[in-house]
Structure formats: structure tokens, C-alpha cells
Structure prediction request, 279 residues.
Amino acid sequence: MGYNLLEGKKGIIFGALDENSIAWHVAQHVYEEGGRFVLTNHDLALRKGDIYRLAEKTQAPVIAADVTSIDDLENLFDETLKHFGSGIDFILHAVGMSPNVRKNIPYPELNYEYFMKTIDISALSLHKILSVAYKKDAINEYGSVITLSYIGAQRQFTSYSDMSQAKAMLESIVRSFGYHYGIKKKVRINSVSQSPTITTAGKGVKGFDAFYQFSNCMSPLGNATAEECAKFCVLLFSDYARKVTMQNIYHDGGFSTMGISDKLMTECFSCTGKCMEEE
Ligand code: NAI
Prediction:
């Protein structure tokens, strides 16, 4: 049951691929809270077909857009503004992909064409979306934009590879565009740095299960689920977070502040001391 926190608000949700996607959960919760939206993804993802189930449940039109294409984004915003007959109040950017991660290429040997693709899809796309919205004056005053990040932007997670650089750039775009859109229209822009979550993108990272278990044992509250992330996004879209902008907010059960936990030492980590013998 919702609380009508988003009654009357309209938006665009990027990145719902299947029912595990964080964006899928956000769409469901936004809908329950009275928000209405357009769903978008690139052609290939739409062909998978799952998104139309979500669209039906949430009365949302589906408009294809590749986030790397300015033409697609222009069309998406034009069609969205036409659909609602007015400006929008929120955007969820839940998009990420690294061909280097997918192909498991070792970090010192990264393919630079792939690297550029990682940056374009996973980071620059936020700038492109905001730039198109800014030019079209598509977001209403105190509108709220959220992108999803990961602590790999700040710390070294060995198999996160070039996604670490993409997330660092993404968080930097949040701060820079947060300033410009704040001045122009009081639009809020934040990144939510989420716990490892079992989704298509998540499982694509080598050793994901170990990441997932490690952070679950380390975090005093345990990993945050996709559903909990969705509820937090509702809060950030709502008027209860009107002065929160240009932040990277950890939504991770406390993981980002931990050094070591009792649980990890006693239950999960049986150290053999082998690494010390090798020194
Ligand atoms: P997901 O695989 O369900 O979502 C990724 C989405 O990006 C998919 O819908 C995919 O179709 C879309 N996408 C890829 N290339 C695109 C393009 N060129 N144009 C338009 N859309 C494109 O996985 P998830 O986990 O829900 O990912 C959403 C966001 O959350 C990503 O930015 C991811 O990095 C971030 N995140 C995920 C975590 C996890 O452990 N799953 C942890 C922290 C952040």
C-alpha cells in the first residue's frame, strides 16, 4: 500500500529490463505512490519483451531510446512531453554496461573501444539525458533526477574493471550538472550508491556471488535489496527531499563505513594464514 507520496508527478524511467532490474522495482513503487511515467530502454531490450508486462501493470507507454543517441533522446523527450501535455518531475537513470566486463578482459589489457562504450553508456548518457532535458526545459521546478552508482567508484573491487571509472565519472556529472540545473530550475540530481543486487547487470560482474556475500556479511544492516532501493528512490523523488542535491548517497546497509565486522571474521572468513607465509 502506498502513501500517495508522488501523486500528480510524472517522469521517465530508464533501464527496466526484467523483473530483477532495480528500475522495475522503482517503477512498481512509483506507480503505487501515484506517480506516472514513460518506460524506456534500447531496442534490443524491448525485443526481450518483459517490459510490456510492466508497462501494462503501470499504465506506462514504452518508447525506445538508446541512451548514447541524442536523436533517440530528443524523440523520447518530445514524445513524453506530448504524452503528459506538460513538463516532468522525475527521471530514473538505471543504465550500465561494460563490454570489457562482459568479455572478462583483464584490467591491464582493456580494449579501448569497449572502454569508450562503457563510458558512453554508463556515464556520459546521464549528461546527454540532462542536456536534452535542459535544452527543452523538460523538467519542472524541484524535479528530481536519480542515477544508480556503486562503491567501485571510490574503492578498488578487482573485477569491477572499467565500470569503476564509469561510476566515478557518473558521480562527477551528478555534481556538475546538479549545479547548473539547480541554478536554472532548482532541479535536484543525486546518485544512489547501491549494495550489490542480483540483476542481469550485477551478475555480469565476475565473482558477483563473492561480492554479494562479502558485503552482506560486512554491512551491519545487510545488503540493501532492489525493493529497498526503490523505496529510497520514491523518497528522493518526493517533496520530502526538496533540498537534497549533488550528493552520492550510500544505500548499502552501512557497508561504505565499515572496516571489518565480527560476522566476517567469525562466520565467513576462515583465514589460513597462507598469504603471510608467501611474503
Ligand atoms: P539491469 O541489467 O537490469 O539494468 C541495466 C539496464 O541498462 C538494462 O535495462 C539495459 O537494457 C540498459 N541499457 C544497457 N545499454 C543501454 C543503452 N545503450 N541504452 C539504453 N539502455 C541500456 O541491472 P541493474 O542492476 O538493475 O542496473 C541498473 C543500474 O544499477 C546500473 O547503472 C548498475 O550499474 C547500477 N547498480 C547495480 C548494482 C548491482 O549489483 N546490480 C549495484 C549498484 C549499482
Remarks:
- The first strand starts at residue 10 and ends at 14.
- The domain at 10-209+220-258 is CATH 3.40.50.720 (Rossmann fold).
- The beta strands are 10-14, 36-41, 62-64, 88-93, 139-149, 188-194, 248-251.
- The mean pLDDT is 95.
